[in-house]
Amino acid sequence: MAKLxxxxxxxxxxxxxxxxxxxxxxxxxxxxxxxxxxxxxxxxGEGRIASRIGIGEAADMFAAGDDLYxxxxxxxxxxxxxxxxxxxxxxxxxxxxxxxxxVVDDLRVPVxxxxxxxxxxxxxxxxxxxxxxxxxxMREVRTICHCGKKATMVVRQDDQGRxxxxxxxxxxxxxxxxxxxxxxxxxxxAGDLRSSGTAE
Length: 200
Prior knowledge:
Largest sheet: 6 strands, parallel
CATH topology of the domain at 4-141: Rossmann fold
Strand content: 15-25%
Strand order of the largest sheet: 5-2-6-7-1-8
Number of strands: 11
Order of helices and strands: EHEEEEHEHEHEEEEH
Number of helices: 5
Protein name: Thymidine kinase
Helix content: 25-40%
Catalytic activity: thymidine + ATP = dTMP + ADP + H(+)
Subunit structure: Homotetramer.
Binding site for Zn(2+): 145, 147, 182, 185
CATH architecture of the domain at 4-141: 3-Layer(aba) Sandwich
GO molecular function: ATP binding; thymidine kinase activity; zinc ion binding
């Protein structure tokens, strides 16, 4: 039975690595996959999903306003697809998430979306919020804070390493721009840590 999966994490948790490995597993068993990534993020090159560990794969790109149901339906006319993989899923619009849900329900093809859950201010991305609402299954791709705890938040830094608390929700960047932290250290970095009267 086809399902809509949302695999979420903070920055630098290895989402793209997991996506590429899963797609490879299908292809190794002679089942084709269809890869999509956001046109907005071209750090790996245009039309490419790449991991920090050096593996990569060509992918079709989506932009705001694209009809992903129609795009996938058109791809299926060229031949069967065992699964659809979407990288940078936080950049999907709510409408596009609904289109992916229709792909699962009506075309009966599993869709595996990989993306960030929250931005540098701790707010849900609209695409991620809709995926959290609609996904049949959700999986967290985990990474750790410098303290060893699970990282659930991310801070944005300027080129001097100063933490930024204001700005546009979307700013493309990697390790030079974003650092994944646990909630406590995210609050500390953002200047929001108040004494609670308890020691840790």
